[in-house]
Amino acid sequence: MAKATENILLELNKNGHDLNVDLGYNAALLHDIGRYKGFTKSVIHSYDGYIYMKEKGFTGNAIICVTHSFPCKNEHIENAAEWHLVPGYMKDQLIEILNENSDYDFYNKVITLCDALADAEGFTTLEKRLVSVGLRHGTNSHTSLHWKGFYSIKKELEKHLNKSIYKLLPNVEKSIYTNIDY
């Protein structure tokens, strides 16, 4: 996932953007740091990562810990994985963070998308990853809106790249020959 972030940021730079590739790569490595407290199906790890990184003084990384779970920004927040499991005080804090950071920059967009372009086997297609997550965690009446958030980001980035995201993910085509994990 961090390698996908690096590849996309490098290509964005080739297309006239001025992005710090090392910063993006490291933020991608740390986006799920909230899982140090254990695995949850919900976005609780986003909150835990935010608190941890904020306490360490890394505000940008803290924000990415949250934004990567919300491809629709602060719209349709109930689309987040297992939102009903998130305690009220965490929901309030997550909503506040998203409201304060509703204009995602390239780092937020790239990391959010790249989180959905990799699995245990390596790079994969967005369709395969979203179906895999849906099979493992279930779907609800808002799932399609959540998925549209990823596709909106993909479309925007591809416009800036002048090419398909998949051209920047070595061996992504191999994922079409493997089973979906669930």
Following the backbone from N to C, one meets helices and strands in this order, namely HHHHHHEEHH
Q: Going across the biggest sheet, name each strand in turn.
A: 1-2
**How many helices?**
8
Instruction: Determine the structural class based on helices, strands and strand pairing.
Output: mainly alpha
Number of strands: 2
**How many domains, in number, for the residues?**
1
Distance between the termini: 19 Å
Strand residue content: under 5%
User: Roughly how much helix do the residues carry, as a percent range?
Assistant: 40-55%
Low-confidence stretches: none
User: What Rg is obtained from the alpha carbons, in whole angstroms?
Assistant: 16 Å
On the 0 to 100 scale, the average pLDDT is 92
- Name the shape in a single word: globular
Major β-sheet, in short?
2 strands, antiparallel
